[in-house]
Write a structure and sequence with these properties.
mainly alpha; single chain; 77 residues
């Protein structure tokens, strides 16, 4: 997931305004008690940040791939 895909998924899931507020203000324990926006600034991969944000915001797991984005490939071999 690229940063642009992260922001697209945030906007599609939460709406642009609320998604930005959530990303800036919600402190996520899984990311070390920082916000999603701060995690991205610190270089944490966008997919990791997205999944942590989804967990913290109680997004159903079936939508964690990001609205409008293809589901990630799974290593089921």
């Amino acid at each position: 997931m690229r940063r642009s895909e992260f922001w697209y998924a945030v906007s599609a899931e939460f709406g642009q305004a609320y998604g930005q507020i959530l990303s800036d203000d919600l402190v996520i324990a899984q990311l070390g008690d920082i916000s999603a926006s701060e995690a991205l600034r610190r270089g944490i991969p966008p997919r990791t940040v997205w999944e942590a944000l989804c967990r913290a915001a109680e997004v159903p797991e079936n939508r964690w791939h990001g609205v409008g984005l293809p589901e990630p490939k799974r290593n089921d071999t």
